[in-house]
Specification:
This protein is an alpha/beta fold and 306 residues long. Helices cover 43% and strands 14% of the residues. Strand 2, helix 2 and strand 3 form a beta-alpha-beta unit. Belongs to the short-chain dehydrogenases/reductases (SDR) family. Pfam families: adh_short. This is Oxidoreductase.
């Protein structure tokens, strides 16, 4: 479909939280939401990098209403502190964008394999803790950023902590499948309460994600190769953010939809994206939800329907 950031509707009076907004897709998403009048919270792990991002945003959108708040998705105490301190009674939009890609094995503060812990569990906990504000907005949206790389692997609910043999790309794929299963189950639970849950992916977009894993592993040749591929083949973060912004703001977005670039899932206008059959498994989505509540200690409380 022919849709650009110029089609984002007026967002005056609405509040949005964008995780991982210090660079790349998150920064572009935050900037364009602010450009259309939203009050935007840049949720960033590194406060200094977040401040630099805010300066860039304000340089491009001088009248933006935006602020930086610290959020470390690898630490559930930080997630709780962020949610507790968020200065708003209503939240119209939550963009679960932050993530890690194909990094060497490590664990979060709470003992989870880092990619599963950050990409899925941190966002699961954050969304649950912000749920009362989302419900208060009536018509709120939660957009979770996944990846076509989810097709590499299904979740392993028998090993949610990732304690068995670790492959960086398989761990990444499992976390991205988890994003889609979370989106599906949240849609089922939240739809009766007028909260929309959708997913999006950027295609192949040039960000720091591709080079970070090789750099952390000390593989300089691979890191240089990834940067070269980005320059030659990847779209810009501005283009990659368009499917995310579409899912976040377009009027015809459906529950549990998965939006991505329309040309082979890599480039082009936003449109419906292919997803692996296992991401449509309602039983798996329910099981992942139960596991996620147990691991994070965050339970979603929806009011009784009248």
């Amino acid at each position: 479909m022919d849709w650009t950031t110029r089609d984002i509707p007026d967002l005056d009076g609405r509040t949005a939280v964008v995780t991982g907004a210090n660079s790349g897709l998150g920064l572009v998403t935050a900037r364009e939401l602010a450009r259309r009048g939203a009050r935007v919270v840049l949720a960033c792990r590194d406060r200094e990098r977040g401040a630099t991002a805010l300066c860039r945003l304000l340089h491009e959108v001088p009248d933006a209403r935006a602020e930086v708040r610290t959020l470390d998705l690898a630490d559930l105490a930080s997630v709780r502190a962020f949610a507790d301190a968020l200065p708003c009674d209503r939240l119209e939009l939550l963009v679960n964008n932050a993530g890690l890609m194909a990094i060497p094995y490590s664990r979060t503060v709470d003992g989870f394999e880092t990619q599963f812990g950050v990409n899925h569990l941190g966002h699961f906990a954050l969304t649950g803790l912000l749920l009362p504000r989302l419900l208060a907005a009536r018509g709120a949206r939660v957009v979770t950023v996944s990846s076509l790389a989810h097709a590499l692997a299904n979740v392993d609910l028998g090993d949610p902590r990732g304690e068995r043999r670790h492959n960086p790309w398989i761990a990444y794929a499992r976390s991205k499948t988890a994003n889609l299963l979370f989106t599906r189950e949240l849609a089922r639970r939240a739809a009766p309460h007028h909260v929309l849950s959708a997913a999006a992916h950027p295609g192949y977009s040039s960000t720091e994600l591709q080079a970070k894993g090789p750099r952390m592993a000390g593989r300089r040749t691979q890191e240089k190769a990834m940067r070269l591929f980005n320059r030659l083949l990847a779209s810009t973060p501005e283009a990659g953010a368009v499917p995310i912004l579409y899912a976040a703001t377009a009027p015809l977005v459906r529950q549990d939809s998965f939006t991505g670039p329309s040309r082979l899932g890599v480039r082009g206008d936003p449109g419906p994206s292919w997803r692996a059959p296992w991401t449509l498994d309602n039983t798996a989505a329910e099981r992942l939800w139960a596991v996620s509540e147990r691991l994070t200690g965050v339970r979603y409380e929806f009011p009784a329907l009248r």
